[in-house]
Design goal:
By secondary structure, this protein is an alpha+beta fold. The chain has three domains: about 110 residues, Immunoglobulins (Immunoglobulin-like, Sandwich); about 220 residues, Glycosyltransferase (Alpha/alpha barrel); about 160 residues, Glycosyltransferase. The chain is built from 18 helices and 13 strands. Helix 7 runs antiparallel to helix 8. It is globular. The two termini are about 40 Å apart. It binds ligand 9MR (2 copies).
């Protein structure tokens, strides 16, 4: 939709005539700002000296301002101009006019609620093994796909009790991404991140409703949705020894066909130390969280804890059982060429699992193990590095107050200092950054899945920094990262499907591509700018922050994935919780 044309239709006087092509230079958050929020737009050019804000309903001028600064881009000759209209605080719709361009923006209470709800709802559409019904999914309804009740033991996973070719049942769970496979590492990471934020804002999640089949029970929708995948994960543990299969997959990626039309056999592959530890961490965490929801999930809390302890014990016996897909393909048939989620360093997974097991059980042995594997600095959470998830277990403000153990308190002290050191460094140049956000100001901010793993996860990290320090600057910068994701970026995309005025229409997503509906499934954060451009698609630019193309074939920049959705759930929910007028913190 062309908002500029609507604009010219509404407000005729004083503006360029309708139909005249005008520059596309204004970049701003296309979803909305809450009244007290800092509001900044960027003009993707130099030479803009002033801007005007009009009330969209009346056409009245609300603000005339001068541009604030002109900032050179760190990796190209491009310069940009920032415009601060923070003083516009009355809820309503507005037009921003600058340099011959116009853009719409909205001020309202809880602008991020729509993002948080859509991001959580996106997981429902990813559910395998059940029909996605019209009453919940509207036009995106579809029949069930991939029952996974007849899954073969791949030769790499064979052992004394389960032989190659034996059949197990491993139903439910979510499709990982644009593909149709189910991967333990990424599943656990995604749930771990969302459960971490649940612990910070349980009251927020208690009131959230996103119209899923379980919305009428007594459990928060977030936890209902996570349970759908947790229940699948439990089936991935070998009952004989407690080890966990790395993934459930077809040998090669399916074509772009409907889930119900898929014919390839599905396998569980080798048990890995990383998958088993991620499983242990997330089951221990779930055990602690779901204790309060026994009525809807009877017995789950105890079952999850048993599963977690057995998994941890298996990992201690197999610390080097890394998943090396190339090596497996040398040894076994059929070859498996789907996502590898390979990782040859399990120290961060050990730390996360031991931390969660200590949280849930209070056993001293897990505390000692957590201390032994604890990190020495803060790294943004990702599927490959879960040390931040381990830190989040310790850095829950409510829990910190209750910790009596000296060793535990000492650990918390150092973890807190690492996180705050990261946050301080991250925000230090944000005022002068080209897009006025800590995220996006460095070349290393871009790569496969960067918007979720780095952009949204940085915002969530800054929320922790704010909660731990009480310093507003961290919170301001978390909102700035969200502004970046929602439109204040070089390409002017709101990178979440279905939101904003310009969002991705052609994600690399088999479900969206095969459902016969023009609009993609909503609420999905795409991978984002990736100078690696590994898919060989023609990109409009080779600049790191412009290496993005809204094309279905572009799996390196335009796929969607549960870990990026989880990052969006975490950041947008936390920030929505904190921007409510009644928010205490
Ligand atoms: O669709 C696949 C996507 O989910 C993966 O992230 C990506 C990288 O592993 O691979 C995609 O599948 C492509 C395959 O790797 C190469 N042939 C084209 C496939 C996409 O149609
Ligand atoms: O998110 C993963 C990214 O870090 C890797 O660089 C990339 C290539 O191995 O794979 C990404 O994960 C994909 C997974 O392997 C298969 N499902 C789709 C995931 C998102 O692209």
């Amino acid at each position: 939709m062309n908002n500029k044309l609507i604009c010219f239709g509404i407000i005729a006087g004083g503006l360029a005539a309708c139909g005249q092509s005008n520059p596309d230079i204004i970049r701003l958050n296309q979803v909305g700002y809450f009244p007290q929020q800092e509001k900044v737009a960027v003009a993707d050019t130099v030479g803009v000296t002033e801007f005007t804000v009009l009330n969209a309903a009346t056409g009245a001028e609300v603000l005339k301002g001068s541009t604030q600064a002109t900032v050179p881009n760190p990796w190209s000759s491009k310069t940009r101009t920032t415009m601060d209209f923070s003083s516009v605080s009355e809820p309503g719709q507005y037009w921003l006019l600058a340099g011959g361009d116009t853009a719409v923006f909205e001020v309202k209470e809880r602008p991020l609620q729509v993002v948080a709800d859509a991001a959580l709802k996106s997981f429902y559409y990813q559910r395998t093994g059940m029909p996605i019904e019209e009453q919940y999914a509207g036009q995106w309804n579809r029949p069930a796909g991939h029952p996974d009740t007849q899954v073969q033991i791949h030769p790499s996973a064979a052992g004394p009790s389960r032989k190659a070719g034996d059949v197990i049942s491993s139903p439910k769970g979510w499709y990982d991404a644009g593909d149709y496979n189910k991967y333990i590492v990424n599943s656990a990471y995604s749930i771990g991140l969302m459960q971490a934020v649940y612990r910070l804002f349980p009251d927020y999640f208690a009131q959230q409703k996103v119209n899923i089949p379980e919305s009428n029970n007594a459990t928060p929708d977030l936890l209902d949705e996570l349970y759908y995948n947790l229940s699948w994960m439990l089936t991935m543990q070998d009952p004989a020894d407690g080890g966990v299969y790395h993934k459930l997959t077809t040998p090669s990626f399916e074509a772009f066909i409907k889930p119900a039309d898929c014919q390839q056999p599905r396998y569980v592959v080798q048990k890995s130390v990383t998958a088993t530890l991620d499983f242990a961490a997330v089951m221990a965490q779930a055990s602690q969280i779901y204790k309060a929801f026994q009525k809807d999930y009877p017995g789950f809390s105890a079952k999850a804890l048993r599963a977690a302890e057995r998994a941890y014990a298996w990992a201690e016996k197999h610390p080097e059982a890394y998943y090396d897909q190339d090596a497996l393909n040398q040894q076994y048939d059929p070859d498996v060429t789907t996502g590898a989620y390979g990782d040859k360093d399990a120290s961060d997974e050990f730390f996360w699992a031991a931390s969660e097991l200590y949280y849930t059980t209070g056993k001293q042995s897990y505390l000692i193990k957590a201390v032994k594997s604890s990190p020495r600095s803060y790294t943004l959470p990702s599927w490959a590095n879960t040390s931040a998830l381990g830190m989040f277990a310790w850095l829950v403000p409510e829990r910190e107050k209750q910790l009596k153990d000296v060793v535990a308190s000492g650990l918390v002290g150092s973890l807190k200092s690492y996180l705050l050191a990261y946050a301080t460094d991250a925000v230090k140049d944000a005022n002068e950054a080209a897009f006025h956000a800590p995220y996006g100001d460095s070349e290393s901010d871009f790569g496969w899945g960067c918007l979720g793993e780095q952009g949204a996860n940085q915002a969530t990290t800054l929320v922790y920094a704010y909660l731990l320090s009480g310093k507003n600057n961290y919170l301001t910068n978390a909102y700035r990262d969200m502004d970046y994701l929602l439109g204040r970026n070089p390409l002017g995309y709101c990178f979440v499907t279905g939101l904003g005025t310009k969002s991705p229409l052609h994600p690399h997503h088999r479900l969206s591509a095969t459902d016969g509906v023009d609009a993609p499934i909503p609420g999905l954060l795409v991978g984002g700018p990736n100078p690696g451009q590994q898919d060989g698609v023609a990109y409009p630019s080779s600049l790191p922050d412009e290496s993005y193309v809204d094309a279905e074939e572009s799996y390196a920049s335009n796929e969607i994935a549960i870990n990026w959705s989880a990052a969006l759930v975490a950041a947008s929910s936390a920030l929505d919780a904190l921007s409510q007028p009644s928010a205490e913190k």
